Amino acid sequence: MESHADHARTFDVVIIGSGAAGLTAALALGETLKVAVLAKGGLTGGSTAWAQGGIAAVLDEGDTFEEHIRDTVIAGAGLNRRETVELVVERAPHAIRRLVDLGVPFNTEGNALHLTREGGHSHRRIVHVNDATGHAVQQALLRAAEANPNITLLPGRSCIDLITGRHEQRYSGSGRVWGVYALNEETGHVEAFTARATVLATGGAGRVYQFSTAPRGATGDGISMAWRAGARVSNMEMMQFHPTCLYNLEVKNFLITEAVRGEGGRLVNPRTGKRFMAFYDPDRMELAPRDVVARAIDSEIKRFGLDYVHLDISHQPEAFVKEHFPNIYEKLLTLGIDMTREPIPVVPAQHYTCGGVVIDLDGRTDLPGLYAAGECTESGLHGANRLASNSLLECFVFGEAAAAHILSHWTAFDAPPSVMPWDESRVSEPDEEVVIKQNWTEIRRFMWNYVGIVRTTKRLERAMHRIQLLNTEVEEYYRHFRVSTDLIELRNLLQSADLIVRSALKRHESRGLHYTLNFPQTDDEPVDTILVP
Q1: Which of 147, 325, 360, 507 has the fewest CB atoms within 10 Å distance of its CB?
Q2: Which residues are catalytically annotated?
Q3: Fold entry, domain 23-238+354-412
Q4: Under 8 Å CB-to-CB from 160, ≥6 apart: which residues?
């Protein structure tokens, strides 16, 4: 058997993902340990760099931890785990100070950080860098990682599966995780990366939907790999749809940040010319949580036969709009939309995966040696709906928590064993790659139509039937042909779709992001939807 992975590359810790969660963990671990950071595609291709809004933290004198906790739990429809919310909220100020020390140029007002407000928040508590916070954070973390000699950054690695005892063709073991097999996108060969501890920081599964604000690589890789290795996942039915994605036939997936509504943006029905949130949430209006606003927009579009609704902030002074949203303003201007003078056409789009791999407060999964942080996890922070600007915050807190636990228990970690090289004897038939494109398109379309903002049992069953048919086809293809990034992603997309639909069928109520016409009521006791491999 020909192999190009006869000798695994071994590090102290392997981190899969180069966004906020992965780089935060790497910087903490890299003070004493040898760390590899693997990234699919480029190092900045994840969701972190796409984040426009900001980071929530209690920094204002009139604000309190308890109010941030309460806002998070209200948005999460009570499905949050209280101890997780407390941990994240209380560590938020430290996370902001750490980012300031790393050189993130947050907006200021006098000598203090400028705080904006977003939907679901009772106070101004969002620190930001104009409307491109994620990009600034990504750059600062990456600069620090590049300067650390203990951190090896390895872009162009599409991870296939975790190395565990469950993969009988690889080696026999206890089910502990020892690293990952990854496709080298440049050479086309599979490499083995082994380590005493492995951290998943792979982001969400947004690209399982036809319309999503997530980057191209958000295909549920970490969630799917952990599931196949034997880890539990939870609350996968809680897929957040951002209310305001730009509606444009040429530019896809461009997000209009929550902060536009936080700074006075109004949602208007283009046919009636009237604001409509008063019919859905008269107290909070446009500042209602995302699930409420997304369902309201979806309802207006369906009731009136619209293609989109309007988000209008043109009543604010021109200088105010340009100062607060310079990147959005410039982008829209290239499309012929002047947001200082006219409304922005918007539609909901999938935005965030609130469920994922189950972790504890130390970032530990069910599998020894495997940690996880960020959007690929279900930590208990978000519950049934993520509060705006809590996402980057979760990455920082759990990236540090996972690193702290690894460091404090380092002497208990065994060295990784020898592993079998990947079987590269499978042939490749390029003329068959049309199968990948066809199945990718089919998954995303039926997930949007059947497992979207409003669901029914019948639609979910239709989706599950198609998933079962595709499973046979994709697994047969996977076992006979060489792996490619597209094939790896298709396999993970289908696995993610399966987990989402199975979770949605198990929840016989409507709560937060899961709204079904068959069970419109909300149960008295919130219960996680946990799937066990």
Answers
A1: 147
A2: 290
A3: FAD/NAD(P)-binding domain (3.50.50)
A4: 180, 181, 182, 183, 190, 225, 422, 483, 488
